[in-house]
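Annual report, structural modelling task.

Input specification for the adenosine-5'-diphosphate complex:
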Amino acid sequence: MKNLLQVAYLDIRESLRSKWFIVYTLVFGGLMALFFITGVSDSVVMGFTGLSRMLLIFIQVTIIILPIFILITTVKSISGDRESNVLEYMLSFPVSLKDYYWGKMLGRFVTVFLPVLLALLLGVAFGLFKGGAMPWKMVFLYTALLFSLSFLFLGLAFLLSTVLKSTDMALGASFVVWILLLGFIDIALMGLMLQGRVSDSLIVTIAMLNPIEVFRIGAISLFDPELTVIGPVAYYLLDTLGQTALMVYAFVYPIVLGLLLSLLGYIVFKKKDLL
Amino acid sequence: MLVDAQHINKTFLGSKVLDAVTLQIDSGDRIALMGSNGAGKTTLVRALLGFYHIDSGDLSVLGHDPVKERVEVLKHISFIPQLPPPVRLSIEELINFIGKTSDLDPRQIIKEAAKMDLDIAEHKSKPFYKLSGGMKQKLLIAIALSRQSDLLIFDEPTANLDPKGREQFYQLLSLIPEERSTLFITHRLDEIKALTNRMIYMDLGKVVEDEKI
Ligand SMILES: Nc1ncnc2c1ncn2[C@@H]1O[C@H](COP(=O)(O)OP(=O)(O)O)[C@@H](O)[C@H]1O
Ligand SMILES: [Mg+2]
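The model returned the following structure:
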């Protein structure tokens, strides 16, 4: 445990000094700043208050870019350490693989989750300063969603970089997974739906297995299902599952999936050659 | 006995990299491990350090399985890589990590480094990879020496040094106390002869010669 915390602590120290972390923080902080400047947070449209509207846009953008950010930076640093023989050296000391792997994971989690959380809180603080009411439920739900989103893609990144030994392969695989989850599945679903060849419940099931889709739906689940912005699948789910069940699912399912992926990565790390 | 390897085999992508290697290392051995590129020297060392899972055979280091009991094994071995790895931790963080994992007072490392005229206090917040080549090499050796390991393993430590750097390096090595065993992978027997008492040649994954000198 002492070594696990040490590995996590050092990984955090190292990340805080790295270029990727600066870029990462600037992107999410900058995104919030952009919202303030463009006045997204001021107007009241379709029943949304300015602050909720801003948070909704923030989370929707984040759902798209956070996964690829986490995948690229994590894969680069973990696979990069192996290729440059940093891993060989660090693991030549008596540290257990359990402490090393989970320590790295813990350290990474802190550095990928904290900046987005801070950006979210920054937005809330600014909204309150402008005189809005505190949207407690929304802030709480979005914090939970960002938490499980970060955790899931971190788990995936750890799995990819332990299974695929070269950085290029692991990066390539990251892109493929991201694009598949992001766009392809949606387009395929739409196509199937239009053709009407498969049952609605199959389409909904597929949508609910895609974590990105789950986050999207989770993020809008707070709003009135009658709102047209929500889309048919989300509408259907909200209607059948109910708001609370949907929110719990949107938080728990990605965590469970992330846990499985990172555990699988750990098993590969232990059972296969390290270098 | 420090190392006992019995008929160990390792295959990469269908080619046998370690071919029924049998080898014992006793305390007091100072070994020069030689052989052409691709002979399997690095693979053998990485198997001892628990990085590779061998396909068959028996391998124990101080009575432990290097993969299943890596912590026990690595408490007793120090590894000095061919090239100083581009570790981004600061010197202070690196020696704290080593102190914590290896149950060692980091001041031991500072003391050891001072013997080689390397002042760690002056550079402690610098990332390791930003040190000069000579300083990195000294620090790696200081770390290895301060850990009081039973076996020190060097993988081609001088392959990337100029003649002057090599000379300095050998001077550092003469600081290694007699009671420690050492294993050098090297191409330059002439330079290292004074520091060794046993020569092992490998070729195509096999130990082809093993003699005391
Ligand atoms: N991780 C690995 N994956 C695949 N092949 C490897 C790996 N490590 C070494 N090899 C191959 O095994 C052979 C022996 O390599 P190595 O032990 O590094 O030789 P040496 O250190 O004696 O030069 C080489 O042909 C090398 O290409
Ligand atoms: Mg080699």
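Helices of chain B lie at 41-48, 70-74, 91-102, 106-115, 120-123, 133-146, 163-173, 189-192.
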